[in-house]
Amino acid sequence: MSKISIAIDGPAAAGKSTVAKIIAEKLSYIYIDTGAMYRAITYKALQVNCELTDESALNDLLAQTKIDLLPGEKGQLVFLDGQEVTNEIRSAEVTNQVSIVAKHRLIREEMVKRQQQFGANGGVVMDGRDIGTHVLPHAEIKVFLLASVQERAERRYQENLEKGFPADLEMLIKEIAARDKLDSEREVAPLKKAEDAVEIDTTSLSIQEVVEKILVLVEERIGSY
Ligand code: CDP
Ligand code: CDP
């Protein structure tokens, strides 16, 4: 059976990584969380005190940086220069600054190159902001997931509670709205639905319902799996 590429884009907490992981597992495809790569270089830049607005310095740093995404028992593991940083890259500090790094053209060009290599053989579910528009423009299936800011902030609030780090809902709403704005308004490869992407508003859908909608698209494309 032919192995296709599936691009899943959308704003923060729209459910991209959760559904992408499930779809990849069902199809025995590889799953690539491209946001983790932007987070990893942001984390490193903060560690080495590299100025996040200095595109050229960040680009030099990225050139000397190895980022590996490997499957683990509970999902994707992220390695930065051989060291696991799966949890570290999810810190509030990284989350609130990653969009500053992700807006630089040189950084995006290098990341897109690396991401295209990961997806070169098909059989991939990749999630991010520009997968359908730039990384995998020929993906057989493109999905754009949406949900209201309130709903997305509540999802992150719930996640934080479960991890034992209660957050302030109003603060989460502000942070998500600010990141949406930076990601959607940047000049290079902004967060945008590809013309040929299927839009799914997940505001009142369960994870299972979203997965089922995407699996219908898969079946239409490759038959039963
Ligand atoms: O998990 P969450 O949706 O909060 O974010 P993420 O997917 O880990 O992405 C973190 C940030 O990386 C985004 O807010 C974007 O600034 C950037 N990003 C991007 O510019 N392009 C991508 N393909 C993926 C992420
Ligand atoms: O990857 P992205 O930032 O788009 O979102 P995520 O990390 O996959 O999902 C954010 C949270 O929302 C997770 O805790 C999911 O379990 C939850 N979620 C949900 O409650 N309902 C959905 N339809 C999708 C995700």
In short:
With 225 residues, this protein is α/β, with parallel strands linked by helices. It has helices at residues 16-27, 34-47, 55-63, 92-102, 105-118, 131-135, 149-163, 169-185, 207-222, and strands at 5-9, 30-33, 67-72, 75-80, 83-84, 124-128, 141-146, 198-201. A hairpin with a 2-residue loop joins strand 3 (67-72) and strand 4 (75-80).
Which helices and strands occur, and which strands form pairs?
Blueprint: E1 5-9, H1 16-27, E2 30-33, H2 34-47, H3 55-63, E3 67-72, E4 75-80, E5 83-84, H4 92-102, H5 105-118, E6 124-128, H6 131-135, E7 141-146, H7 149-163, H8 169-185, E8 198-201, H9 207-222
Parallel strand pairs: 1-6, 1-7, 2-6, 7-8
Antiparallel strand pairs: 3-4, 4-5
Helix pairs in contact: 1-9, 2-4, 3-5, 4-8, 7-8
Could you explain the architecture of this structure?
By secondary structure, the protein is of the alpha/beta class. The chain has one domain (5-211): Rossmann fold (3-Layer(aba) Sandwich). It has 9 helices and 8 strands. A 5-stranded parallel sheet has the order 2-6-1-7-8. It has a 3-stranded antiparallel sheet with strand order 3-4-5. Strand 3 (67-72) and strand 4 (75-80) form a beta hairpin. It is globular and about 50 Å long. The N and C termini lie close together (8 Å). The relative contact order is 0.22. The model has no long low-confidence stretch (mean pLDDT 96). The structure holds cytidine-5'-diphosphate (2 copies). One cytidine-5'-diphosphate binds at residues 10, 12-18, 155, 159, 202, 205-207, 210. One cytidine-5'-diphosphate (CDP) binds next to helix 1, helix 7 and helix 9.
